[in-house]
Amino acid sequence: MNRHLKSAILSEEDMDVEEPNEQEDTTPSMSRSRSLLSLFTFDVDLPHPSLVIVTRCENVNRNERLETMCLERRELDHAMSWLSTLGGAFSALGEKYEHFAYMAGRTSVEQFRLAIRLGDDLIVARCKLYYALSLIQRGYLSPARKIVKQQYDLAKNSVVVDNRLVRMCLGIWAKLKYEYAERRNKKNRLKIISS
């Protein structure tokens, strides 16, 4: 175990150690762990209740805010996973039934809201693409085209190119082209039947 890690995790018996006098001769590792004891401490619910974690924070409220932020991030990630699974299922059913395509669109909007709270631009872009896919399934090709083009330009012009996002754009663009071709074929068939 590394020396710094040993000094950060102490048992309850170690917490009773008094601060050394400056005249006392101590080894560097001993003085470091004792200087850590003078900082604020807080108890953390760990599997082993005899452990206490020593932090360098000067304000306990900061620890509480940090804990709240970590828990919120975990819950948002968890909700994002569930919404992604649900949205994928609705999208698959949306290929055949328009109502499910609509539900997939609503799910992608909820994912979009969570992605904004998470502050992850790549997830925001993916949520927009999911929404564009829902629009394609419902027959709104023009707004979907604008969204896909915008996200593709964003993905290609970013500092670090995310290949996954680029491939998603290309895949949805291919579906969009297919739907445009199907629409043209349907119009041509109607012209032939009517003439």
Can you characterise this structure?
The chain has 195 residues and is mainly α. It folds into 2 domains: 3-56, no CATH class; 63-194, Serine Threonine Protein Phosphatase 5, Tetratricopeptide repeat (Alpha Horseshoe). It has 7 helices and 3 strands; from the N terminus they run H-E-H-E-E-H-H-H-H-H. A 3-stranded antiparallel β-sheet has the order 1-3-2. Strand 2 (41-42) and strand 3 (51-54) form a beta hairpin. Helix 5 runs parallel beside helix 7 and helix 6 runs antiparallel to helix 7. It is elongated and about 80 Å long. Residues 1-55 have low confidence and may be disordered.
Please summarize what this structure is.
The chain has 195 residues and is mainly α.
Structural class: mainly alpha
Task: Please tell me the CATH architecture of the largest domain by its name.
Answer: Alpha Horseshoe
Distance between the termini: 84 Å
CATH C-level of the largest domain: Mainly Alpha
* CA-based gyration radius: 28 Å
Going across the major beta sheet, what is the strand order? 1-3-2
- C-alpha geometry: elongated
Secondary-structure element pattern, one letter each: HEHEEHHHHH
- The tally of structural domains comes to 2
The total of beta strands comes to 3
The CATH topology of the largest domain corresponds to: Serine Threonine Protein Phosphatase 5, Tetratricopeptide repeat
Average of the residue pLDDT scores: 76
Helix content: over 70%
List keywords for this structure.
195 residues, mainly alpha, 71% helix, single chain, three-stranded antiparallel beta sheet, 2 domains, disordered N terminus, elongated, Serine Threonine Protein Phosphatase 5, Tetratricopeptide repeat, 5% strand, 7 helices
